[in-house]
Structures are given as structure tokens and as C-alpha cells.
UniProtKB/TrEMBL annotation, chain A:
Family assignment from sequence similarity: Belongs to the binding-protein-dependent transport system permease family. FecCD subfamily.
Highest taxon of source: Bacteria
Record's protein name: Iron complex transport system permease protein
GO molecular function terms noted in the UniProt entry: transmembrane transporter activity
UniProt xrefs under Pfam families: FecCD
Transmembrane regions: 12-38, 69-86, 98-126, 132-152, 159-183, 203-224, 251-277, 289-308, 320-341
Keyword tags: Cell membrane, Membrane, Transmembrane, Transmembrane helix, Transport
SUPFAM superfamilies to which the protein is assigned, alphabetical: ABC transporter involved in vitamin B12 uptake, BtuC
Automatic annotation (TrEMBL), chain B:
Organism: Mariniphaga anaerophila
Residue ranges of coiled coil: none
Molecular function as annotated in GO: ATP binding; ATP hydrolysis activity
Domain ABC transporter stretches: 8-249
SMART domains linked to this entry: AAA
Name this protein carries in UniProt: Iron complex transport system ATP-binding protein
Pfam families listed in its UniProt record: ABC_tran (PF00005)
Organismal lineage: Bacteria, Pseudomonadati, Bacteroidota, Bacteroidia, Marinilabiliales
Amino acid sequence: MTAFPKNRKRPVALIFFVLAVVFVIFFIADLLLGSIIIPVKEVLFSFFPSSEANESFRTIVLEFRLPKALTAVFTGAALSLSGLQMQTVFRNPLAGPYVLGISAGASLGVALFVLGFSSALAFGMFSATGAWSIALVAWVGSFLVMMLVLYVSTRVNDIMTLLILGILFTSAVTAVVSILQYFSSESMLKAFVIWTMGSLGSVTKSQLMVLAPAIVAGTVLAFFKMKDLNAFLLGEDYARSLGVSIKWSRVIIFLSTSLLAGTITAFCGPIGFIGIAVPHICRVLFKTANHLILVPAVILTGSIVMLFSDIVSQLPGMQTTLPINSVTALIGIPVIIWMIVKNRKFVSV
Amino acid sequence: MKKEKINIELKHLSVGYGQPGEAPLEVLTDVNLTAAPGEMVALIGSNGIGKSTLLRTLSAFQPWFAGDIQIGGKSLRTMHPKEIARIMSFVSTENIRVPNLSVFDLVAYGRFPYTNWIGMLSAEDRSIVYEAIEKVGLQGFENRPAMQISDGERQRAMIARALAQDTPVIVLDEPTAYLDVSNKYEIFHLLQVLAEEKKKTVVLSTHDLNIALREVDKLWLVTDGGNYQGAPEDAVLNGWLNKMFRNKQVGFDEKEGEFFFKKKFRAKVKVEGDGLHLIWTLRALNRKGYQIVMQADPDFNVIVKEDTWLLVANDTQKEFQSIYQLLAFLE
């Protein structure tokens, strides 16, 4: 609630400075490391067209690694920010970006397209249209769910009802997807499974032109709702008695979350645990419940964690990469376990 | 900080819940109650009668079916949430479970309706927050985590938050639930002082009837048979308190000013003696279900002397050193 009270125990500005330094280091490291390791000098040269950089290095850095690093930053920031908003609005420490069923909606879109629609048509058509069509159907799926959630949230007063509806919807979609999987061919199944593993590298420069504005828009909405998010911490009765228009505030926050999580899921697949773990890391780091600090903190920390996950997943110096979803799970889950053990009980948010 | 002092009026108000697909459930109908500035009002009634519903409706948390709520002559229905937040603050029974939230931060929530879009506190806001913390006696607690203070202290912090909101009306839903007796009295006293000094209208619901009867300016009584309002003493003299409970075994003793449970008497007993020892012996026998009689043929007699109790029944006598021994023998 209060903006940087004088007598706060944690040196907020110092922590932000350290995080910013770590962010820059990880961002550069993500450009340097990969299946081949590019010297620092060459990476710097590639940004200046006139300089005598090695052309193949320049292509790798500008066409592949830079879009991937930027995608990692957007992904980490977006998922963490939507996770923070959901934990606060639902007052539930295990809420994440996907509680509203957004990833389920995206999965359904992709499953229907890859497993259902494409099997009716020639399979070749799907591979021709490529990654854009998968992103498009995932986006359509998650935004249809978002519309449904927003509609229901203006009619249902009780926040727990929304949470339960989200869980039920996710289960129903999982069931439909299982049926589709059961009846689909091996190659289609593989295409779908690869999507569920998530990928930062598949995002092209042109897709980034769509992804970036959507994430920025979702982030701006979240910034405008920081004050209301603080009020939601005390529960809806108190928020209302402080003059917050609950329904409208909730709609804007859901819109922000859906934009952030829906867009990322569409382009990168469902990436788990970042959205749940990062807000908790920030609460421990800053020892605060104030969203004026937490919102910028999760954006920065989420980017760092995602850059780190990306560096790990490409196994520097080797020819193979790990699925990003497994890496984030292996990083995120220990953090959550550590926090449960450390706090003894997982009290609220 | 000066604000217009305003009245609360509930006119033919009907409150309850809408149920999807069914007829709406009316909890209370035709409620007519008023409160004036500087008054501390206790809303009392039996469990489940609709006290919370009434307070939630008064706080604009839920719509009502019929009638009107007027605050300062203006209908609550026409007010914007932001406007209501500057007129009425609310303290609920819900526990605050936010880690890393200091008492200062918690009280500073009260400034929410006055701060800018990111909630930045001005110097004036900060001094109002400190003043509110001091008013409820929590100086030195500013940096303590709100989750790690006692229930009584947290309730005081919540009242400080309402104070910082600087509203002419404060509504509290059972502010003394879960508190020990001394904390209950402290909270009532604090609210009484606030109502009187700052001329605020304080409306609270409570089950601590004995304390409410001594501390509040006015009772709002909701019963199955209708609603009453007036000074606590009016309620006693008019016999309203006896109508409060559906359970007819609970009654109100107008002389003692206390509620009691009507028991079936197991025997008649006549007691002699004087002073405190007599009073507490009578209470003990009453508690155990013995009817105290003055003349008419008692089943046995108890004579209270200094620190000894003499039981006389059918020519036999027995002496006891404490009330506990006496009661144990009677069992």
C-alpha cells in the first residue's frame, strides 16, 4: 500500500540494482552460449552492420539468439506478472497464470487444429502453414476462454466459484484432448506433444512483433491496477469498503492476465511453474506485500529466471536442447518446496 | 479533516439474498432504524437472524430488496463506491492473513480513497496514519508484522485503519468476537471514546450483550417479532430483551441486568447468611439448579457463616469448608 516507507527493513533500491545487473549479465550470456559458443567481441560486432563481423555469427546472433533471448524476457515477465495477479486476486498461494483455464483453452485450440482439423485435411497443409497457425489457434482458444471468464466474472460475485469453474474447465478440456489424442496418428500426436513441451526458439522475428505489443499492453494494464491489487490482499469486503469497484477491477486484471498468459502460451506453449514460483521468490527477496514493489520485481526476476532456464535448456556447447517446460519445472518446483519447508505453512499470498 | 456530521436512517428496509432460479430469500423485512452522529449503536439479535446481512447491506456490499438506506439524507443507492468509501468505513470479522504486511501498512490502507493512482502517501496521509495508530494505543507497533500481533492488537489496528479512513460512520461486524474479556471491554471503551470525541456514528453487531448494555448509547434489536431501538435501559424496561431469543429457556433478568438460562429446579433450598459469601453461594446453588426460596417448605437449608457452610436437612447437619465441597456432597 505505502510507497517505499522510510523505515523498511530491506534496501529496496539496492536489490533492484543487483537484479538489474544480474539481468544484463544473463541476457548477454544467453546471446553468447548455445550449441556453438560465440566470443563476446563477435556478439558486440554483430549489432553494428558496418563492422567486420563474421557473417555466420551475425546471422546466428541477430536472427536466432536475439529473438530467443527477447522471447525469454517477455515470457518470464508475462507469466510471473500474471501469476502474481492471480495469487492476489484469488488470495491463493498456489494460483498461477493458468487457474482461469487459459492454457486449457490454448491446448484445446491446438489439439483441435493439430489432431482434429488437420487429420480431416491433408496433413501436409498443416506443416505448410507452420508455426503461425499453431500460434493463431492457441490464441483463439485462450481468448475464447478469456471471454467466457470475463463474462462469468461479471455475473458471479464469489471469487471461489470462479476458481472452481477454472479448475473444472481445465479438467474437461484435458478429457477432450485425451480423446483426440487417442484417435490421432503418431505423427500428429508428436506435433501436439512437442507443442506442450514449450519452446522459446520457435518464435520468429515477425511473431515477436505481435507478441511484444500484447505483452506490453498486458503489463500496462497491470501497472494501472497496482493500487487495487493491494486492496484485494485484504479481501473483497475490505477492497469494496475502500472504494474499489470490484467487478471492473477484476475484469481489467483478468484481461491483463489473459493477454499475458494467453499470448505466451500461444507462441511458446504452456510453460509451467514460473508463474507460481517467481512471485514467491520476490516476496521473500523484498519482504513486502506491496504491489508497487512486487509488480516491477516479478517482471525483472521472471525475466532473469527465464533467461537462466533458456541457458540451461540449450546445454551450452552441445548439439541438443532440452524442452523448456521441463527445465522450468525442475527449477520452479524446488523453489516452491523450499518455500513450503521454510515457512512451515504456506500462508496465503 | 472536518466533515459534516450525518445521520443514518434505515426506512422500511428489506434485506436478504437473491437466489438464482428461486424466489429471493428475505432475511429481514420492514426494518426501521436510525442512528445519530456521536452515537455508538449495538445491533443485537440471535444467531442467524440476519445481523451480518443487515450490516453488509448498510455497508453497500450487497443490494437490498425494498425500502431505503439514507446517509445524511442521501440514498445509499445513488452513491458511487468512492463516495461511500469517504463516508463509511468497515471492520469485518475476517482475519487478515497477509505476510510481510506491517501494522503501519495495514493502517495506511485507510488512506486508500484519498491517495493518487499508485497509492502514494503524502506527508499529511502519513501523519493521519500515525495519529490513528496512537489513538488506538499501538505506538511502537508500526513495523511489527500484522500477522504476528495478538487478536486484540490486530482488532485495534483494524479500528485504526477505519479511523485513518476518516469517515463519519464506522461499521463493525462483531469486533469483539474471539477476544478475551479485558480486550472486549477495551474495544468497547475505545469505540465509545471515538464516537464521543470525534462525533462519529459507530454501528457494531455483538453477542457480548452484558458489555453492550453498559457501554452503548443505543440498541438496535432485531427479533422474529419485529425490530426495536432505544437506549439499553429502555430495552430492559420494555422487556424487549426477553423477545430476543427463540429459545424460551433463555431469559433476561431485569433486576440483575443479565441473561440467564431457565432450568428445571431439582430441589428447593433456603439459605441464610450475609455479605459476599451469601451472594456467591446463591449463585452457585442457582447454577446447579436449586430453587432458592424464602419461606415455603424447603427441601434443605444452607447456613452460610464465615468460611464455613452448614447443610441442614432432616435434622442432620454437615459442615463444609468451600462451596465446591458443598456442591460435591449435594451431587
